[in-house]
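Quick one: structure for this chain?
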Amino acid sequence: MKKNYVRPLDLRHGSVDLSHGGGGRAMVQLISDVFGKAFDNEWLRQGDDGAVLPAPGPGERLVVATDAHVVSPLFFPGGDIGCLAVHGTVNDVAVMGARPLYLAASFILEEGFPLADLARIVASMAAAAREAGVPVVTGDTKVVEKGKGDGVFITTTGIGALPVGRQLSGANARAGDAVIVSGTLGDHGMAIMAQRENLAFDSEIRSDTAALHGLAAVAMAAAPGLRLLRDPTRGGLAATLNEIAQQSGVGIVLDEAAIPVDPQVAAACEFLGLDPLNIANEGKLIAVCPAAEADALVAALRAHPLGARAARVGEVITDDHRFVQMKTAFGGRRMVDWLAGEQLPRIC
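Got it. Here's what it folds into:
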């Protein structure tokens, strides 16, 4: 079986398209061929959600992560671009095993953007930072001409402290390990899409956006052999597991019946012809741990408010092809590949 072929980037005549921001194979290729080659260094080569850096003092190291937020609409059921900007970067620091300490924020504002909406976004952002215990300590603001900024874009950078000896990385998965998710998949992406498409359901689909450093701490305490944590944002579970398979040089097999998806989200995906495995999440963790620690880890996650629907959904296997596969409800198997293009633009 062959994976979808992606043509080499045409750096002379080519141009950026939406697939380059979709979390799939095209985005990975853009990052590797353009940014990775230009900025190449030992820290960037780690290839995780943040970079582990040497600290000036003994006992801990620094983790740095940054994330840009261009979500549309700016306000959606369960959140808005402000709290999302805090949660996204706190989570990128947390899945590295670090304790988030500080945030920096940069705003690009469009001329004519209502001050009332800006104040609402900043208040939401401040409330999320206070709740997470991670203050915004510095930032920058720029204004562009009307028609050139689409309201507001926010970039946040997080700084965290990582104890010496702790190393969670997408390169750590080993054959025989268990794959665990902390809850239902696709909630954030489908909340955005349901609002865009004016879809009505018996109950409102709400974004799962949340700061996950408390849940990550629970996971690390419950599973001393924890290999890695990831938050499956753009590209969803499928893209994240393919990244892990590539980094670790392994295969992964999922059990379709074990994967938690809210019925409303499943219905929306079916209506729109989408796969929940490709849909972004902003309040879920993927954990990979030794199989012997899986039951304890699932139980610990379920005891936390943000992990009540945690489930063991698959296993890591030996596979030189580094495929991610799914055992279906009908007893067969199918490939779980990267997205070939941009499925849901502007969701985070």
